[in-house]
Design goal:
The chain has 208 residues and is α/β, with parallel strands linked by helices. It has helices at 22-29, 47-55, 121-133, 146-155, 168-173, 201-207; strands at 10-16, 38-44, 61-64, 79-93, 112-116, 138-143, 159-162, 177-194. The chain has six helices and eight strands; from the N terminus they run βαβαβββαβαβαβα. The two termini are 34 Å apart. An eight-stranded mixed sheet has the order 2-1-3-8-4-7-5-6, with helices on both faces.
Length: 208
């Protein structure tokens, strides 16, 4: 039995999409950090792979910023998707980038912007707003990883479309400022679980 988890130690296995904010993940598991009776196992992957591992009882929960409908097919009836948080989405930039308040969406026709990758709910909502306004934004980069988007936001002279939680440390330090919060555009955070006879009690504690 060498190397196995002690019998008095609980294990919580969490899967997360790579597009999910690391800051959100850290806040989600914060109540368990430092508990010596808990082992956390965290993995990332595609929605399809993570849900498959959930159904195989290899994961207790999948954290995502989109519901499992993104699989493009039928989802098993015992899969439960619960929205656990919602964040407004806005445009952030290095301080001093703008000399006047941002005129949204008109200024997006002449200012470069960093965007989440296509296929995310944030990007779809943003694209719809641009199409409705007849604006063709100057896209500097499209990134499917929020950690990379955060790095680019800090190092580029451009606007970045993100939920504030992604760059909360930079906003607190003043290395980035929020220049516009987009009305009606938000990011939902979901906990995807499977209906089980004996659910992991740690999970119920976090979601509550």
């Amino acid at each position: 039995l060498a190397g196995r988890v002690r019998m008095d130690q609980q294990v919580l296995r969490i899967g997360a999409l790579p597009t999910l904010s690391r800051n959100f993940q850290a806040e989600f598991i914060a109540p368990l950090i430092g508990r010596r009776d808990v082992e956390l196992v965290m993995v990332s992957g595609t929605m399809r792979d993570l849900v498959a591992r959930l159904e195989a009882h290899e994961l207790d929960v999948v954290l995502a910023n989109q519901p499992p409908r993104s699989l493009g097919g039928a989802v098993a009836p015992d899969i439960i998707c619960q929205r656990i948080a919602q964040q407004p989405v806005g445009l952030v930039a290095p301080p001093g980038l703008l000399r006047r308040p941002l005129a949204f969406p008109q200024d997006l026709a002449k200012l470069p912007v960093l965007l989440p990758a296509r296929g995310t709910d944030i990007r779809s909502g943003f694209d719809q707003l641009m199409d409705a306004a007849g604006i063709q934004p100057i896209i500097l980069a499209e990134v499917d990883d929020m950690a990379m988007l955060r790095l680019l936001a800090r190092s580029s002279d451009a606007l970045t479309l993100v939920p504030p939680i992604v760059v909360k440390d930079e906003l607190a330090a003043g290395t980035l400022v929020e220049v516009y919060s987009i009305p009606g555009l938000s990011e939902d955070f979901h906990a995807i679980t499977q209906r089980r006879r004996f659910p992991n009690p740690l999970l119920a504690e976090l979601i509550r």
